[in-house]
TrEMBL record:
It comes from the Bacteria. Belongs to the phenylalanyl-tRNA synthetase beta subunit family. Type 1 subfamily. Binds 2 magnesium ions per tetramer. This is Phenylalanine--tRNA ligase beta subunit. CDD domains: PheRS_beta_core, tRNA_bind_bactPheRS. The gene is pheT. It is found in: Cytoplasm. Its cofactor is Mg(2+).
Length: 796
């Protein structure tokens, strides 16, 4: 936002301030000045009088001018402007004049004729070219006949001005109004604010009626002024707009722009004589096309806020007026509109139509002071009378203006407690007075009436911020916060996750990172942990990523499918990630293996991915987490399980809870995901990592020798041999350190429905050497236990 110091001086005296020092002080209170520049450039310029103007002898467009640049001082200047003539008062850039960017005026010869300066156009003074009229660019600028020769032309034409480039933060949109910004400057300079004098006046009989039929408009007001004349604006008004980055058009448009610049309230004007019903209705629901002020046709949608006139489109509220009610050179009777529209709705409309105008930005950013709306209407009417020869002013016609006073309480102790300062009550009073805040004080307690233009103040903390910035941030002492010393380390769960990740990498698996989103057709595949409803995205990018996954296995199968389709058959991967259902988040680990696992081709050694491989990963993980074998069991998958192969899959159970699954996926799902011979593991880490487990203990290498015995047990075919091995270790009172199955036989000499399982038992005692009697006694206990629990007997 550009702030002209010359325009600002209309509201608070700043013409005695050094611009750079003032900019520093403004920045210190939170309104950052991002840059400073002069409105017009040129440092050695004077008003000159062309005494003679003759054609150049060697050119058909150049003229040789004798110019009086100071009383009695004549300089010869060659000029190529088409409108240069004898007797004109002009702007002269003398030799040495620096326009910036390396453009410096020098004495020279132009086609053999000496030239000592340059006669300037407005466009050559460094102004924004977008803000200038064509005649400002096409020829030199001719001054009034009474312009004083030898004086500073920029001062004379009102372009000697300094511009502050302010970077407003979103919470200070009120400073988009010059009067509000003036209060800030007045506070730091401890000066008063001079608001423009507004004279309320008006007669009855405008015949105007206003209605609001939508909650998106909290106030609407209209005021009729008759007998206006459209003409060029006076120089002060045009210069004020140019300095603020607004292009002057004519006095009517310029007045509306200036009032918006001054008060922050956008103004729209209608040609009263083009209205049949003289009625303004604010509503939504239009679905049509309309030609607007810029001559372009726009599509109006039902959600757009419309100011309707004659049952049609009079204006897209806060954005742009319709062509049918526009002000033109023949307009004499004008209706002024000042309203408060919903910023969020306007933003949607303005962006859709690509019409982010200055007016719409004020609504969108909340720069309005609705309580001042009636005063704004009067201010605009006063300027139409003053600058547009308005003859008759009518009373404003408005909806009800309901403004409630806002009061915020704060105390000296609360200010100092939050800021860590020792500001006195009297200093706080001075700060509130400098900001022109009305307040009552009782001891160190304040009740502040918030100005209606300060929409950013609602809490005591907001008032404390006001105190801090006016008091001076640099005066607030810097202190280190008191805090206890802590050691940065992982939590127990984080440590275990890190351990699992590194463990699986050491086992030769590759970690993946896949999408947490999947499609509704796949979300329930392989899910054994979630029972709640699926979480659906409110605005998904597409059907394939519209819900959150309940299992990681499906994602890993898609990775395997991609690799197998690219002729990579050996894939061994894992992923630790989060799965979701309604109100539930679980940390999962999934492993998927297919093809060969760590083979050694040069030794003709090949390890194929199978059930025992992935089961081994589970056992390794549990062992490193301190989960003893006695705490979990493997249970054959259900025959009706549609996700996993019932003959090659087991559920991992702790008590009655399924904490994981290990095995082969169902053939139907292999076909669905287009993969082959994939063995998987999925564990519920949320449960496993929060279990109380024994610490992993390291024991010395046994000093005494071990004893190995082989036994063959006959048992029913459906007896889990894994459970038999665990029972053997249990019955031996931990004397058996390992029970390894090395053969399973079904066939001749074995009863139908039975199987023979050969198991190697490794006996070892850390306290001494085992003797025959001890081993035999343990064997008897083992055989008795397995016969009792499983009906397993020693093979004869």
């Amino acid at each position: 936002m550009d702030i002209s110091l010359k325009v600002l001086n209309r509201y608070v005296k700043v013409d005695d301030q050094d611009p750079e020092e003032l900019a520093d002080r403004i920045t210190s209170i939170g309104l950052e000045v991002e840059g400073i520049h002069e409105l017009a450039k040129g440092n050695n310029m004077t008003i000159g009088y062309i005494k003679e103007c003759n054609a150049h002898p060697d050119s058909d467009h150049l003229n040789i001018c004798q110019v009086e640049v100071k009383p009695g001082e004549i300089k010869q200047i060659v000029c190529g402007a088409p409108n240069v003539a004898k007797g004109q008062k002009v702007i002269v850039a003398n030799p040495g004049c620096d326009f910036g960017g390396g453009f410096v005026i020098k004495e020279s010869k132009i086609r053999g004729v000496e030239s000592n300066g340059m006669i300037c156009s407005i466009a050559e003074l460094g102004l924004d070219q977008r803000l200038l009229k064509p005649e400002d660019k096409d020829g030199i600028h001719v001054l009034d006949a009474d312009a004083p020769i030898g004086e500073d032309p920029l001062e004379y034409i009102g372009l000697k001005d300094t511009i502050l480039e302010i970077g407003l933060t979103p919470n200070r949109s009120d400073c988009m109004a010059l009067t509000s910004f003036a209060y800030e400057v007045a506070a730091i300079l401890n000066r008063k604010v001079n608001l423009p004098k507004v004279t309320p006046n008006g007669i009855d009989g405008s015949e105007i009626n206003v209605k609001v039929e939508t909650e998106l408009c909290s106030f609407f007001g209209a005021k009729l002024v008759k007998g206006v004349t459209t003409k060029e604006s006076p120089a002060w008004l045009k210069n004020a707009l140019i300095a603020s980055g607004i292009k002057p058009i004519n006095n009517i448009v310029d007045i509306s722009n200036f009032v918006m610049l001054e008060t922050g309230q956008p103004i729209h004007m209608y040609d009263y004589d083009k209205l049949d019903k003289k009625e303004f209705v604010v509503k939504t629901g239009f679905d049509c096309k309309e030609i607007m002020l810029d001559g372009e046709e726009y599509k109006i949608e039902p959600n757009d806020i419309i100011v309707s006139t004659d049952d049609g489109i009079g204006c897209i509220a806060g954005v742009m007026g319709a062509n049918s009610t526009k002000i033109d050179e023949n307009t004499t009777n004008i209706v002024i509109e000042a309203a408060t529209f919903d910023g969020a709705s306007l933003r949607e409309t303005a962006r859709r139509l690509n019409l982010l105008t200055d007016a719409s930005q004020h609504y969108i950013k909340g720069a309005l002071n609705t309580a001042n709306s009636l005063n704004v209407l009067e201010r605009c009417a006063n300027l139409l009378v003053e600058l547009a020869d308005g003859q008759e002013t009518y009373k404003s016609v408005t909806t009800a203006l309901k403004i409630e006073d806002r009061h915020v309480k704060v105390s000296t102790s609360k200010v100092n407690g939050l800021l860590g300062t020792s500001i006195t009550t009297d200093e706080i009073k001075d700060i509130f007075s400098a900001l022109k805040f009305e307040f009552t004080a009782n001891g160190e307690d304040f009740i502040v009436k918030v100005p209606t233009y300060r929409n950013d103040i609602a809490l005591a903390a907001d008032l404390i911020e006001e105190v801090a910035r006016i008091y001076g941030y640099d005066k607030i002492p810097s202190t280190l916060p008191e805090m206890s010393m802590t050691v940065g380390k992982r939590t127990n769960v984080q440590t275990k996750r890190h351990l699992i990740r590194n463990l699986l990498k050491d086992q030769g698996l590759h970690e993946t990172l896949t999408y947490s989103l999947t499609s509704p057709a796949m979300v329930n595949d392989f899910n054994i942990f979630h029972t709640n409803d699926t979480v659906k995205l409110a605005m998904p990018l597409g059907e394939e990523r519209s819900v959150t996954r309940k299992s990681i296995v499906g994602s890993l199968l898609q990775v395997i499918n991609y690799n197998q389709s690219h002729n990579i058959k050996d894939v061994n991967i894992f992923e630790l990630s989060t799965t979701y259902s309604k109100d539930v988040e679980l940390q999962n680990l999934a492993i998927a293996c297919c093809g060969e696992y760590n083979g050694l081709p040069f030794k003709q050694i090949s390890y194929k991915a199978d059930y025992y491989l992935v089961k081994g990963f589970v056992e390794t993980i549990f062992k490193n987490l301190g989960i003893e074998e006695s705490r979990y069991k493997l249970v054959r998958a259900n025959q009706d399980d549609k996700n996993y192969h019932p003959g090659r899959t087991a559920y991992i159970m702790i008590g009655k809870e399924i904490v994981g699954v290990v095995g082969n996926i169902h053939p139907l799902l292999e076909k669905k995901y287009d993969v082959k011979d994939v063995y998987i593991v999925e564990l519920n880490l949320t449960t496993l990592l929060n279990m109380k487990t024994s610490k992993v203990k390291f024991t010395e290498i046994p000093m005494y020798p071990s004893v190995s015995r082989d036994i063959a047990l006959v048992m029913d075919q459906d007896v889990p041999t894994y459970d038999v091995c665990r029972k053997i270790i249990q019955a031996s009172k931990q004397l058996v350190k390992e029970a390894k199955i090395f053969d399973v036989y079904i066939g001749e000499h074995i009863e139908a429905g039975k199987k023979s399982v050969a198991i190697n038992l490794l006996f070892q005692d850390s306290k001494g050497t085992l003797d025959e009697a001890t081993v035999n006694n343990s064997m008897n206990k083992i055989l008795a236990a397995v016969e009792k629990d499983f009906g397993a007997v020693l093979r004869g």
